[in-house]
Fold this sequence. Notes:
Blueprint: E1 5-8, E2 15-23, H1 27-35, E3 44-50, E4 56-65, E5 76-83, H2 85-97, E6 101-102, H3 107-114, H4 120-131, H5 135-145, H6 148-172, H7 180-201, H8 204-212, E7 214-219, H9 226-234, E8 252-258, E9 261-267, H10 277-292, E10 295-301, H11 311-319, E11 322-327, E12 346-348, H12 357-369, E13 374-375, E14 378-379, H13 384-405, H14 410-428, H15 434-441
Parallel strand pairs: 1-6, 7-9, 7-10, 10-11, 11-12
Antiparallel strand pairs: 1-2, 2-5, 3-4, 4-5, 8-9, 13-14
Helix pairs in contact: 4-5, 6-7, 6-14, 7-13, 13-14
Amino acid sequence: MSDTIAxxxxxxxxxxxxxxxxxxxxxxxxxxxxVGRPALPRHAIHGDYHxxxxxxxxxVVYTFFKGPASYSGEDSLEISCHxxxxxxxxxxxxxxxxxxxxxxxxxxxxxxxxNGRLDLSQAEAVxxxxxxRSDRAVEAAxxxxxxxxxxxxxxxxxxxxxxxxxxxxxIDFPEDDLPPDDRNRSLEAVERVAKEAGRLLAxxxxxxxxxxxxxxxxxxxxxxxxxxxxxxxxxxxRALVAAGPGTTRDFIEExxxxxxxxxxYLDTAGLRKGGAEIERAGMVKxxxxxxxxxxxxxxxxxxxxxxxxxxxxLARVSEHPALVVWNKTDLQPAGxxxxxxxxVSDLAVSALNGVGLDVLRENLLALIEANRIEIGDEVIxxxxxxxxxxxxxxxxxxxxxxxxxxxxxxxxxxxxxxxxVDHLGQITGRxxxxxxxxxxxxxxxxxx
Length: 448
């Protein structure tokens, strides 16, 4: 990390202002050179920016940060200039001429991690915050950035290390085998950690919903009013609506905010037997979307009896988050739902006049919030990477529990527990894994 790096930290394109970020050992020298005197840390200084040839490039504001009290943990300099892409390019070219190197994607945050300013879960939260599309996503990113997940994994890690220390002490002094009482206490401690890790693992569902948006799929027979309902839910006419069946041949996706959540509504082709080849192709797409739905809205026509639908659709309604939505109730009262779907909420709506839509939205929010899990005083939402690490950890813990119960040799038990510690350490980055870091930070913006 001896190089001094520079990059544009704000989006490309014309704007009122742009921010260029510099980090590395040369930042202090450059700040003094530009300002004409030693720059006071965390003081905004107005001045001109001249290139090495002495040409005036812009009227800027310099702010110097002395490491380790900076984002990256190194000496850093921020240059706020006018948001002209031409000016930004000229300033960056001049910084390269002065010895800086263009930053790689995520390199500023990577340096913050390597310098101990952030753990890996906090570094990921930076990108989660940048990509957040809803209030819940922002809240979760802020909690993770402020160390909520790191604190929870540190607590689990301490409990695990206590067990490992006791077992390995016995291995080092083989004349004193682990007494039955100590073996039982170790077993109870490992089972307790596994249970708490399981609760943490269960937050992955909520994490996926708030990061990616909730996939709400509208499915049902043709001409049930799915497209009209979609238009009502998103607030404008996105899907074509016609009196005849088969108007929708492919799925249509629109993202909107519903309360604190980002919702991805998907309107799909109607399901029925027969139909032209292009319509059947649309129904294949519908079945794919139904299988991937976070929440399924089974939209039915109140003027017709409950339709004959594929078994896989009915199973999805029965076994996964779903709502039965009787549409066109301005013309006819809602019909009867089969008894094997009695446990699924059914609602009466009219896509024509909007009656029942508020209740539908309330039910959607309730289904989403049912995935919210509190860990102590924190609401944590792990990512797919965290989930993979926790599953690996739980596998090692299950092996350790089996060996403890079977009174197997301590060396094998200690090996399983060390494996659990390694998996847990992947969440906060308390392991040396260069390849994992490369994959993670490659997804960041250049100026982050």
